[in-house]
Amino acid sequence: MNNFSITFFVFVMCISFSGKSQSFNTPESITFDEATDSYYVSNIGNGEILKIDKTGIKTSFVSGYTSFLGVKLHNGVIYSAEDNKSGDDFVRGFDVSTGKLVFSLRIPNTKQLNDIEFDNAGDLYISDREGHTIFKVSIDHKSYEILNNTINTPNGLYFDAQKNRLLVCNTIDKSEVYEIDLESKKTTLIVKTNYPHLDGITMDKSGLIYLTSWSIDWKNSILLKYDSKEFTEIATNSNGMADIEYNQKTNSIDVVQLYDNSVLHFNLSNKK
């Protein structure tokens, strides 16, 4: 896909939350709790999940683990992918009110569990990029199965409730976006791009898709919008834009930045 236009949102807020000695350590993923207007950010560098309250104060929600990647709030539980560096990664779940571990599932022989998503039935999906696999996890039965192992390097995941499909970023030099029909399990290529290393993926209330892309050398990153016809480059920087989430309450795209240890909020209500 060669056609794209470049535009920037007028209102962009970069937040480097400060609070008592707590700081980001290579943040990878973000999720939002509408009930408390709080963000939860996973950190690769120190195995910690930080909570950022509505005033911007950061506190340690969970710590003492090896390395957290994808993070998602579902039914009062913060779920995250723990890469424990041993080849047997875990899906962990922590009560959002107490931080207590309430769910733990080991998935053996994995390379690095990455992004997390939920469907309307409450099933969890998690990508293993280097393991070339997407797993489906039953929270109720504490079990897992392989959903897909034909997408080469699955990374970012997004559940499109309207179409009951899982959108998947295939992170290669000319990245692709696939959809998996969750009823038939059929996998279909949506678009092949000229952008390398697609990472995060989300969708706004209008059905527009947003993605992050890394340069071939992993030094720069781009936030993209895709309207089913063309890509629009929203922002480019060297701060390491990684996982993203659409925040329906604020109508913004929330983006973690690995290299800059910060979070960006792109307010869609103020775009031009």
CATH topological fold name? Neuraminidase
Q: How does the overall form come out from the CA principal axes?
A: globular
Strand content: over 45%
Tell me about the biggest sheet? 5 strands, mixed
Q: In CATH, what is the class? A: Mainly Beta
Q: Which architecture name does CATH use? A: 6 Propeller
Order of helices and strands: EEEEEEEEEEEEEEEEEEEEEEEEE
Descriptors for this entry?
272 residues; mainly beta; Neuraminidase; 25 strands; disordered N terminus
Characterization of the model:
There is one protein chain. With 272 residues, the chain is mostly beta strands. The protein has no helices and 25 strands. The chain has strands at residues 4-6, 12-15, 27-33, 38-43, 48-52, 58-62, 68-74, 77-82, 89-95, 101-107, 113-118, 124-128, 133-138, 143-148, 154-160, 165-170, 176-181, 187-192, 198-203, 209-214, 221-226, 231-237, 241-247, 252-257, 262-267. The strands form six sheets. It has a five-stranded mixed β-sheet with strand order 1-22-21-20-19, with no helix packed on it. A four-stranded antiparallel β-sheet has the order 2-25-24-23, with no helix packed on it. The radius of gyration is 17 Å and the shape is globular.
